[in-house]
């Protein structure tokens, strides 16, 4: 008998590739006579999920019965950011919104056994630690990590719960400092923990947080993030990141809510999830901070429990009408600032792979990338696009695909750019769902209006100057660009013949919705893509400061 594939999971009709498969007349699960001889169809999940490894975080932490912090927060945070989360439990706490009523530590040997079970079987990318109740547990963990190395270690040095209850005693402190910090990629103390780690120094100001980060850095981790969630008298929630050389202040509005239980666990897990996906540390911390801020904002009025510290909703995105698969980022028009568009002909001429071209443009400071590979064959293009998606994700630079909706779906790109003779933007929106970026090339007022109605996110307007990259492309000049900018509520990126010599004059036009320039030859028909990109970026910045 023909094996019947399981029904695909429910997904919003228009938001993923499954919708595409449902519409295809050739897809009818299990009823085709041919399925008796063919191997069973693969489960029609979201395009590319099948081919992509699942980023994996292992959390080594305590259970919170109230499920706001600890293991429970870690699993929810990782799930929200698209990472798998396995869990080694170090302690079971009886805990609620009032405080911690009891702690039952798991025997050290059994923590070791759990670690062995997970690490010997599964391919873990990043280990994140939370509550480590004894020096023995820290030692067992360090031993396991020596035996089963992972890509990164995130240490949240949980010592005291926000309710003031001790979760890890002073005897553990020395082992933390001596054994765990030296192998950590990042350590994320709140101000109270930073103070304890440094022998009860008092920390009141940002400058104190910087000094603390510097002192903890000397204990061996590659990065230190001192979190200011508990800093009184600040209207902003400010964290300080130190990499041994530079300090980065991460600032967000302090959300007025009682529901901040578990923010620290969540932040560290989000950092771990982003690192597992391949992000750089700075990007991982930025995403994590934004995630916590958004989750607190969406949960500010939740009421769970009667105590002073409530949990928040990690899966708030599921309730949002803008819910989308895989990506938390909404389109930011500022990304259009320096828009790099690749060209297969130029890559061939300079003997560069698409991947190397994209890497170099990002290194030079491109803020968004479009793969415009008119001549590449589909299979080769898809492979390259998948590699570019990884590169762009890890740098926080959106990646769009020119024309090819199918390739964009298959590689899970951030969106597409279409022209007037490609699929209409509203059809593209139907296929890609609300969360993806759609750009449309427009030359006229009518086209700009239509792009808005169709649900596009931005307009590409040109050719502003004569170009050789695109054949039979009328030149609009500044006047044409002005018409389109004024006609539209959408952000606009100027394109066509723009280079280091004229980019400044485009930005100086100063139309409020003109957000940047898109360039092809100016970056890719050059010997060193990174240098040209850097140069153009500084020209654009200078022009903006003048206008
Ligand atoms: N009310 C708030 N509004 C916005 N961001 C906040 C707020 N409270 C905390 N944060 C942010 O949450 C993250 C976690 O920091 P926090 O200092 O709260 O950690 P923590 O004390 O270890 O939390 P917990 O122990 O409850 O898990 C930081 O990025 C911090 O800036
Ligand atoms: C189990 C556990 N881990 C961490 C924290 C820190 O919030 C907590 N309250 N409980
Ligand atoms: Mg904490």
From TrEMBL:
Keyword Transferase in annotation: yes
Keywords, alphabetical: ATP-binding, Chloroplast, Kinase, Magnesium, Metal-binding, Multifunctional enzyme, Nucleotide-binding, Plastid, Thiamine biosynthesis, Transferase, Transit peptide
Cofactor: Mg(2+)
Catalysed reactions, as listed in the record: 2-[(2R,5Z)-2-carboxy-4-methylthiazol-5(2H)-ylidene]ethyl phosphate + 4-amino-2-methyl-5-(diphosphooxymethyl)pyrimidine + 2 H(+) = thiamine phosphate + CO2 + diphosphate; 4-methyl-5-(2-phosphooxyethyl)-thiazole + 4-amino-2-methyl-5-(diphosphooxymethyl)pyrimidine + H(+) = thiamine phosphate + diphosphate; 4-amino-5-hydroxymethyl-2-methylpyrimidine + ATP = 4-amino-2-methyl-5-(phosphooxymethyl)pyrimidine + ADP + H(+); 2-(2-carboxy-4-methylthiazol-5-yl)ethyl phosphate + 4-amino-2-methyl-5-(diphosphooxymethyl)pyrimidine + 2 H(+) = thiamine phosphate + CO2 + diphosphate
Metabolic or biological pathway, per its Swiss-Prot or TrEMBL entry: Cofactor biosynthesis; thiamine diphosphate biosynthesis; thiamine phosphate from 4-amino-2-methyl-5-diphosphomethylpyrimidine and 4-methyl-5-(2-phosphoethyl)-thiazole: step 1/1; Cofactor biosynthesis; thiamine diphosphate biosynthesis; 4-amino-2-methyl-5-diphosphomethylpyrimidine from 5-amino-1-(5-phospho-D-ribosyl)imidazole: step 2/3
Subcellular location(s) per record: Plastid, Chloroplast
Record GO biological process: thiamine biosynthetic process; thiamine diphosphate biosynthetic process
UniProt GO MF annotations: ATP binding; hydroxymethylpyrimidine kinase activity; metal ion binding; phosphomethylpyrimidine kinase activity; thiamine-phosphate diphosphorylase activity
InterPro entries cross-referenced by the UniProt entry: Aldolase_TIM, HMP/HMP-P_kinase_dom, PM/HMP-P_kinase-1, Ribokinase-like, ThiamineP_synth_sf, ThiamineP_synth_TenI, TMP_synthase
Gene Ontology CC, one term: chloroplast
Primary residence: plastid
Location of the Pyridoxamine kinase/Phosphomethylpyrimidine kinase domain: 64-308
The keyword Membrane is annotated on this UniProt entry: no
Every Thiamine phosphate synthase/TenI domain range: 338-523
Gene3D superfamilies: 3.40.1190.20, Aldolase class I (3.20.20.70)
Family assignment from sequence similarity: Belongs to the thiamine-phosphate synthase family.
Job description of the protein: Essential for thiamine biosynthesis. Bifunctional enzyme that catalyzes the phosphorylation of hydroxymethylpyrimidine phosphate (HMP-P) to HMP-PP and condenses 4-methyl-5-(beta-hydroxyethyl)thiazole monophosphate (THZ-P) and 2-methyl-4-amino-5-hydroxymethyl pyrimidine pyrophosphate (HMP-PP) to form thiamine monophosphate (TMP).
HAMAP family for the chain: TMP_synthase (MF_00097)
Stated name of the protein: Uncharacterized protein
